[in-house]
Amino acid sequence: MTDDTDDWVEQLRANRREKDRFFAEHRQSPIPPEERADFDGLDYFEPDPAYRVEATVERHDDPDPVEMETSDDRAVRYLRLVTFSFEIDGDSYVLHGYRQESDDSATLFVPFRDKTTGHQTYDGGRYMELEPERDLRDGDEVTIDFNLAYSPFCAFSDTFSCPLPPEENWLETTIEAGERAP
Question: How many domains are contained in the chain?
Fold first, then answer.
């Protein structure tokens, strides 16, 4: 591995240790309090730089609303702000980035399912968040790192309601990166 890859792997592992500490100790952890003493960390796929992909941005200046079902059978309204086009193993894919209609933060919500969903990963899908340093424009290139994919809080406790990835963000490939099923 190169020094850059070594640094990336160490940073990823440090982030995972920090998240495990939060889940084990913090009062806002999704792990029920009575289960925290036995919690010994989340299960992750090994870091894999092949799942850090460069994606081309298509910005939607007039974003379409998207109703996302939730884990407790409600619906929440998001806006489809961008489409990311990328390749994995020589095949082309797209994912959409969203923001809740009432939210004006720069963070893009990227929920997805893939062929690990319900087998190796949480059956409701996984999430990623992207925080661009500036407004994205058509043709911009961004890195999507599936090694940062995580299970929503509802994977750990029914007290949480989580949006489920819409069908347009179901990938017909296997993404063995990020968090495994709790």
Answer: 1
Angstrom CA distances, 131 to 30, 47, 79, stand at: 23, 21, 16
- pTM (predicted TM-score): 0.93
84 within domain boundaries: yes
Q: Is residue 127 part of a domain?
A: yes
Domain annotation covers residue 116: yes
DSSP for 123-140, please give it.
Answer: TT-EEEEE--SS---TT-
Per-residue pLDDT of 103-157, as tens digits, reads 888 899 999 999 999 999 999 999 999 998 888 999 999 999 999 999 999 999 9
Instruction: Give residue 110's identity as a one-letter amino acid code.
Output: V
Q: Tell me whether residue 25 is in a domain.
A: no
Cα–Cα distance between 164 and 123 in angstroms, integer? 10
